[in-house]
Predict the structure.
Amino acid sequence: MIAEKLKFYRDGLAGSYAQVFFSNDRRFAFLLILSSFVDPCTGFSGLLSALLALMVARWFGFSPALIRDGTYSYNSLLVGLAIGLYFKMNGPFFLILVLGSTLTLFLSVFMVAQLEKCRLPILSLPFLMGTWAVLLSTRSYGSMGLSERGVYAINELWRFGGEGLVAFYDKLSHWTILPAVAIYLKSLGAILFQYNEVSGLLIAAGLLLYSRIAFSLALVGFLTGLLFYYLVAGNFTELQYSYIGFNFILSAIALGGFFVIPSRRSYLLVILTTPLIGLIMSASGRLLWTYQLPLYSLPFNLIVLLTLYVLSQRSKTSKTLQPELVEVQQFSPEKNFYRHHNQKQRLSNDSYFHIHLPFFGAWYVSQGHDGNVTHCDDWRFAWDFVVTDEMRKTARPPGTSPSHFFSYNLPILAPAAGQVIEIIDDVPDNDIGMVSLAENWGNTIVIKHLDHLYSKLSHIRKGSFQVKPGDYVRKGDFIASCGNSGRSTEPHIHFQLQATPFVGSRTLQYPISYYLAAEKQSCRLRAFSYPRQGETISRLAVTPLLRQALCFIPGSTLHFEVTTTNGGSQRVLWEVLVDAFNQSYLFCHNTGSVAYFRNNETLHYFTDFFGDYNSLLYYFYLGAHSVLLGYYQDLELTDHLPLDNFYPGSLKLLQDFLCPFHVFLETSFRAVFTQIDDPDNPRSITVASESRALVANSIKGSMDFLLVFTDNRIHEFTVTEKGRTIMARRVEPS
Amino acid sequence: MKKCQYERPLIQRLNVGLMNKFGTRTEYVPFTHIDGNSIKALLAAYGSPLFVISEATIRQTLRDAQRAFRTRYPKVQFAWSYKTNYLNAVCCVFHQEGSWAEVVSGFEYQKALKNGVPGNKIIFNGPDKTVGELELAIKNSSLIHIDHLDELYMLKELCMKLELKARVAVRVNMDTGVYPIWDRFGFNYENGQAWDAINKIMLSDMMDLCGLHCHIGTFMLTPSAYAVAAYKMADLALGVRQKFNRSIQYIDMGGGFASKNTLKGSYLPGVDVSPSFDQYAEAITTAILNAGFGESELPMIVLETGRALVDEAGFLLGTVIANKRLGDGRRATVLDFGVNVLFTSFWYDHKISPAQDFSRYTEDTVIFGPLCMNIDVVRENVPLPPLNRGDHVVVHTVGAYNLTQWMQFISLRPAVVMIDMNDQLHIIRERETMSSVEKDERLPDYLTGFKL
């Protein structure tokens, strides 16, 4: 119980420090704590204030998750640091500290709740208000003595590190090649109210450890700021003595990589917004001077919030809105980038509703989108499907009656679940050679799948409807038969998606979720794609064995007996869990690792992994990264692995620096079905998959996997990497 | 210019009716080539008579049938009915196109195995399966279609002895509105025998009920009978799911699809009355799709159709031996093949085309075979142009049953030739010789040598 409590406060404290730099990295937090203690009083005051905020927050019963990650307390930490720097430690000092910390906490809670509505962060607004309140109020309290520590930095250094540190500091300040470097380091230190280069160095090191992108952004922001001051011949003393240059640094990290996906454009955004910060800095400096208040991080807060709000107001019609805002915060610019990269590569289709082909067997696309006959203008996103023989003929001789055509009277299926909105069923089939232009669509059905997503099937045979308006249909239900009614020269299925429920509505560009396209000898899987004119396509069928084996029911457990080539043997336990956001994941009880997965009834795929890169779960995450739930001999499934959890090593560090501009690392995943005992009624299916790390097509790392599914569950899982083999066999719980 | 062929003069009665200056016309045109090979050359090379199988026709017909079903239903499997034509070459064409094997005897079972069909893709039908054959089928995981309770009990005992589980299906017979009802095979649906047999299997752990099988008749000219059968089969499958929570993997609708032959006594020619694959497919698949299965639990449809797939690919080539006038004045033509090799002439009014040019005049003719038996009549009455001795004829649609039911009777059986996809010829069964007949004969020593 006590250990649990201690852990909670430890995490809360680490979070409070790291969040100042938008991080949740504990190592970074440790470096920050260390650097805040270069002036011990300030450091102690800050620590105490953060701890106080955590305790009060817990006592009030705010969201434990937000307390634990430091969201509510990092502003109090900053206020504590400020109070520690400005005032002498005495009795009233602690009273003010408690008050300042609590006030800031309340402000934080309020602002988190309010700004969340506009999807904006609170940044350090509570800190600004808290600190200003303390500073203004204490002017009327006689017992609060101003400290001189902030003025005589060397004294503090001596107290902290003795003669050695002072000497080191002295050397450092002489050795500093550019005054700019000194200003930079001091500005970094100033974020934690440590106006010295040692703190700055520690923070800079921490920043590099935490994020290469943040490190480079900090430099870019700061240099742009300096350049701006130089160009407008600004007052450099503002930067030199009040160290408000950190506004450039924090804004650069926030806008260049934390709230915005790092990219060329995000760097450009940093360069564009930095002068604005300079402007606000000078302007607010003047205003606040009236009340003799320091402006602290006011410019950073104003400009970042303003920019984020402005970015969120962009019109979404354009497809490539750059720079893009971070949707799910990963607390690291690198992670934000790689997640986004991976999202773009493989998960961008997750938001589509699954529309399937409306027929059995292989059909030929006689007219696709923007077809040369009738699919044009408002009706350009439609398909016509016919059945042909090997010679591409659509009818048997003499082909003079609709019934001679292969497509005629074939079943039409519901493309997805939905409700039948409208049916037209009074148009007779045309004789071959005739078309009915008056009844353009012929017999038609419109099915509603979602708000603003309807499918429409036309030229249906009169009297063949198996459903009526208002009926609910399931995916694949037999709804009618192919006919030759309306503007149809020969029997075919006209299929389109539309945003409105009318017969004759304009078409909507919306992809077919999964289907097979025939190629010379084999077929290829198409995902969220648009069947093209001239292709022969068919529905993808799911194999019950695979569907059941990869259906992980929340609450169920998987036990494995793991053996490695060197003879080791271990039992591993996974549990299937679901988080508050309805995301399913596998949790490894042995290592605490977590692998998020999705199953969309056609494909099982992993989306993310956190934890131990030597765990069996990690290998499973890589080996079963994407598995098709339908068995098709020789059908190859390819995918990408997230760079950040399949590319440890030094190349990755280089990539971190470069990733906003160029991604040179590549990963590939490939899976094929290699074995099946009986294709019609399989009891056992084997999937071979491989994960490759590539640089310019040369392989830098590879792993091979073998997954055996038997009797509706995973039976065996083998990993081979550099001659080492790990074999896991599913066992019964002991 | 080619020399005109001599035709003997005919006397034809004038029928009262609308005047027509062209006279009555025949349905026949000279049929001179099969897949680019001239009949004359074929007979010259392989002798007369001669069976010819067109591989292209087999593949095309099967693909048409597959397309008819697969564009209507997600899981369809064809199984080649061995008894229809078990020449290895023919079977292998079907297997290459993805068909399983459907056999009805130990002999056919062995043949399928020898052709390389995996044991689990052989459907073992028929009322007569011996203990040894069943044992082999169990070990090979073949699909055993149970015909009667005695077989069910025997199978159960055998499984216990072997400690193996048999993959079985129940043969069901039923009233589909077509009479006579074929109720001699399998278990009856209406009186509950079938459900009883299903329960006996489901309650035994020695057998795995994979499918349900029916075969409602032969040369079925009404597709709606299949709809009735499919509905009843689906009802049984859904019953199994409801009672035992087990899905039936497949429904085997058997065969019986009509070919384009004309049955004796039929008023209209077969080409006009035989339903197309699409009609059969629509009847069967619509019934099963509408039966109430979920999309993912639809059972596979197995089809054992034989006749409709191979009949049109077979041709019988022969030569005129003689012409004669019968006592009642009818014209008769004697050919060099009879009911011994064209067994199906007992059932069908086979279409016979002359293989050379002829004029438009025809005369009602009786076609006799060469046998010295009164039953040897190929066609009782067919309007044919006058044929001369040595002329060639082609009998169409003979691919089904002839090459399995033909007799070595009085004369030796002819050779069988297959024309491949590139119109090349392959002999797939040699003409019989004295030794092939006498190979298995044994003459007791005391019978050798006699004086006459």
